[in-house]
Automatic annotation (TrEMBL), chain A:
Chief location bin: membrane
Transmembrane segments: 61-82, 88-121, 133-154, 207-226, 257-276, 288-319, 331-350
Organism name: Streptomyces mesophilus
Listed PANTHER family: HIGH-AFFINITY BRANCHED-CHAIN AMINO ACID TRANSPORT PROTEIN BRAE (PTHR30482:SF10), HIGH-AFFINITY BRANCHED-CHAIN AMINO ACID TRANSPORT SYSTEM PERMEASE (PTHR30482)
Keywords: Cell membrane, Membrane, Transmembrane, Transmembrane helix
Residue segments, region Disordered: 1-50, 355-381
Pfam families: BPD_transp_2 (PF02653)
A cellular component term, taken from the record's GO annotations: plasma membrane
Membrane topology annotation: Multi-pass membrane protein
Localization terms from the record: Cell membrane
Protein name: Branched-chain amino acid ABC transporter permease
Molecular functions per Gene Ontology: branched-chain amino acid transmembrane transporter activity
Annotated Low complexity bias: 359-371
Automatic annotation (TrEMBL), chain B:
Source organism of the structure: Streptomyces mesophilus
Keywords tagged on the record: ATP-binding, Nucleotide-binding, Transport
Domain ABC transporter intervals: 4-251
Name of the protein this chain belongs to: ABC transporter ATP-binding protein
UniProt cross-references to InterPro entries, sorted A to Z: AAA+_ATPase, ABC_AA/LPS_Transport, ABC_transporter-like_ATP-bd, BCA_ABC_TP_C, P-loop_NTPase
Amino acid sequence: MSNPLRPPRGPHGAPAPDSRDHTGTPHGAPPPPRPDSATPVEPSGARRPTPAARLLESRHIGWAALTAALALPLVIATPYALNVMTGAALFVMLAVGLNIVVGYCGLLDLGYAAFFAVGAYTSGILAIELDIPLLATVPAVLVVTVVAGLVIGAPTLRLRSDYLAIVTLGFGEIIRITATNLEITGGPSGIYGIPGLWGDGPTDPALFYYITVGVVALAVLFAARLGRSRLGRAWRFVREDEDAAAAMGIRPHRVKLAAYVAGAVWGGLAGVLFGAQLSAVSPASFTFLWSALVLMAVVLGGMGSTPGVVAGAIAISLAPELLRQVQDYRFFVFGVLLIVVMVLRPQGLWPQRTRESARTAARSSARPTGTPASVAREESA
Amino acid sequence: MSLLEVEDLRLTFGGVRALDGLSFTVGHGEIVSLIGPNGAGKTSAFNCVTGFYRPDSGTVRFDAVDVTGRSPAAIAQLGVSRTFQNPRLFGELSVLDNVRAGTHLWLRQRMVDVLLHTPRYHRTEQRVTDEAHMWLDFVGLRGDRAGLVRHLPYGEQRRVEIARALARRPRLLFLDEPAAGLNHGERTELVDLIRRISAQGTALALIEHDMGLVMEISQRVVVLDFGRRIADGPPAQVRSTPRVIEAYLGRDTDDSELAAARGVIRGD
């Protein structure tokens, strides 16, 4: 019986500094098959994913959803249906953007519609004033939303949870009220006559739907990939414990600001598509209800879970349409349904996967070439 | 010149003097223990040095750089790592992810690689995962690495916290009561682990109440009382210092109590 914790000993009984691990592998020799019984990756008690769970976690689910979205106009292509479906797709983009802020980084943002408004107004005004296609305004929209994210985020993100929620709520209202009162934003009636993406009037609804689905698919993919990167991990560390993250050299304020700005960019770009779809924007489109609904989609689907948030957004945006039968009571029924879901499943309908995949849980065959000792030296050198 | 030099630190909470002119040093590769009665200011000292508290006055120099009042992240960037008195892990994340946090400072990833999942992205991710496994091996973690860290038993969680701190590849590692709550076997393994960390050239500063452990592994012991250093030296010297015994048991102790106190401090 070898004690897995006992290090290999050097000639004088001191721990051999160049031993890579406790199996006593000589430096430079190929690692032998590791008898890992002492440190099992999978304990006997670990639950194995059910086939249904595995299906929900598989990568194919994204392709299936995209195929379904692209095939839907072949089934139903009335202008009304296309309009609802485009709206749902835009809502998905908003929800995925807010998920970066709320789900990944744990910042409660109640004013997300502000960035949606900034994007829609910026692109609409520029396109009308300069007489350029909407697509040409995208670089400017990126710059403006990043700046807006920094300006709103830098002072507010020093606050913690509930204070942050109130301040973001305030900023959401400030943006809306500013838009209502400025001349350049058209006051309460907003701006209209926004050109299509290529400038020549509104784009064909079916084509516009396909473009929207394409953009939203990329937005979903990129958001998910950001979540699986070094930055995405830093967001989660800050969400879980800011102080512990700081002790690892992560600057919480900077990391939170990055999440906020990423959310702003996603919201702003969704705003461009929103303006293109309606060819008009007004302050009434950016009320607190919007921010609340997007947040609801994130929470309902499962904070931090990409498929969950996408499903939540589709559910929230289609529910009022599907509940049309109950007419006046539809928001009431909607509210009751949400409460029921939150009581029965507080983690969301499709919660974030927290287990590592089998691939990362297993050690790779190509082990790091350095030893603990040598990497430490390398670092201090 | 020492790796860490703490000079005349003062810190008050309201009217309470947590630190009252504390000075101590940690040399390159040295194992130094901070001991003292409850409320002596040990954790306050740690928090000041690692940037979590801002001292009212005094200086903290790490590797000859004045880091007094810098943020915890800035100090961590210089090569300081720490654990907490009560493990502060990222509870809703996997064990591996927790250790990956330690790699944040030296891992570089470009946004383009991340969004397009280029081979370079996959290589960096693989490297991080391998590192996390390596440090978990190093601390001898038993248990499920792929699952949530909060599902691990307490003793294993403490190991994960040390692995996370090591993955930062620190030059100086602070351990705040690493042996608290560990059983006898785990304690023995901890002694061994601390020796192996030291053997790779990392300096260690620890707060510990387990006198046996302190006397066994420390090269130097700094004794605190009322926010001040009352003794500093090799274990053998410190444990026979009258002021140390007094600090632990109070004044006016008779000979038999004194003898018992020596036993406590010696770790019998």
